[in-house]
Specification:
Elements (H helix, E strand, L loop, with lengths): L13 H4 L5 H8 L4 H4 L19 E5 L4 E7 L12 H9 L2 E6 L1 H4 L4 H9 L7 H4 L2 H13 L12 H15 L8 H12 L3 E5 L1 H9 L3 H13 L1 H17 L2 H15 L1 H24 L6 E6 L9 H7 L3 E4 L14
Parallel strand pairs: 2-5, 3-4, 3-5
Antiparallel strand pairs: 1-2, 1-6
Length: about 325
């Protein structure tokens, strides 16, 4: 297996981080895999490191009579990430309903896997050999052969789908599990509590956005991962640490901003356009009810920066506050 035996690398320099473009994209897509919701999380360990600051990426958006909570999720987590900070429990208890990127019911629908497979495959007349440079094909072939696999078996899989599989394999080897992701945890909790849950988009919407990423950007991302998977492992560790600490500045600068600069088409398709599509649905939760509050759970990068829904709602005149017991407003404002 490509990722077997990976060791934590030295902390990345800013220049070396610029080479890793695809991991945020792939983590954005991780929720789209139906396996995430097939097996709900079992009883979770409750032993987080005592000396670590635990701050949620949580904002409260209010109009005259009700509230929408915006919670930045991490789609792949470890057992020791639980229990969640108390602020998340309070928001969950206060909310009458929840919104996720994908409706939990669609995640387990029989036709969902067919939709995913449809988008992972090339259109007629195209193949992996037409989409990847020979040097990248050679690297992939060696990695697949080392794990006992066949490059020929991947011929009809688009580069982003192969990259996603490699990244998920790497994260699983590191102890991250999709079924422990914050989305899945809160989906299961909402179901148990009898709280209605819905989605901001469909599996088809999310897969169409992934599939629309230009092959050139997909190929570069795959090549960069194959060239140095240990760097990707380190970046994953960094992202996880920043998320646990509620470090908006690092997540925004090192992940969202670099994604926008280095893969502008991917950023537009997977972040900016989806945020714009979600905005009317979020506003409806504020203006369409006089009493019900909603907890919205989406990938953390969707909340950050001028393109993020936090700033977009603030720009529309809604009252927006960070919900974080140990944060200062100035230090933990959303990225601009």
């Amino acid at each position: 297996m490509l990722t077997a035996g990976l060791r934590p690398a030295d902390p990345l320099t800013k220049d070396s981080r610029l080479k890793l473009r695809l991991l945020p994209i792939l983590l954005t897509a991780a929720l789209a895999l139906p396996v995430n919701a097939v097996n709900p999380p079992k009883k979770l360990a409750t032993t987080p490191a005592a000396d670590e600051a635990r701050r949620p990426l949580l904002w409260q958006v209010s109009d005259a009579d009700n509230t929408v909570y915006l919670l930045g999720s991490f789609h792949l987590l470890k057992a020791d990430d639980y229990p969640m900070p108390a602020e998340i429990d309070r928001a969950f208890n206060d909310a009458e309903s929840l919104l996720f990127e994908i409706d939990p019911r669609e995640m387990t629908a029989p036709e969902t896997m067919l939709t995913v497979r449809k988008y992972m495959a090339f259109d007629a007349g195209k193949s992996l050999r037409t989409a990847l440079p020979k040097s990248t094909l050679d690297k992939l072939g060696k990695a697949v052969a080392a794990g006992g696999g066949s490059l020929q078996a991947m011929e009809q899989s688009e580069p982003w789908a192969i990259s996603l599989g490699l990244v998920l394999g790497m994260t699983q080897a590191m102890g991250f599990k999709a079924e422990l992701g914050l989305d899945q945890h809160l989906m299961a909790r909402a179901s148990k509590a009898g709280k209605p849950a819905a989605g901001l988009e469909t599996i088809d919407d999310q897969m169409r956005a992934m599939d629309a990423v230009p092959h050139a950007e997909q190929a570069r991302g795959l090549d960069e991962f194959l060239s140095d998977p240990a760097q990707a492992a380190t970046q994953m560790q960094d992202m996880h640490r920043w998320w646990r600490a509620g470090d908006v500045a690092s997540l925004d600068t090192m992940m969202r901003v670099q994604m926008a600069e280095k893969t502008p088409h991917s950023y537009k398709l997977l972040n900016k356009e989806r945020n714009n599509t979600w905005m009317p649905l979020l506003e409806k939760r504020l203006t369409g009810s006089t009493s019900d509050d909603t907890l919205v759970v989406v990938g953390s990068l969707h909340l950050l920066g001028a393109d993020g829904v936090v700033e977009k709602l603030r720009a529309k005149g809604y009252k927006v506050e960070r919900v974080c017991d140990s944060c200062s407003d100035k230090a933990y404002a959303p990225g601009r």
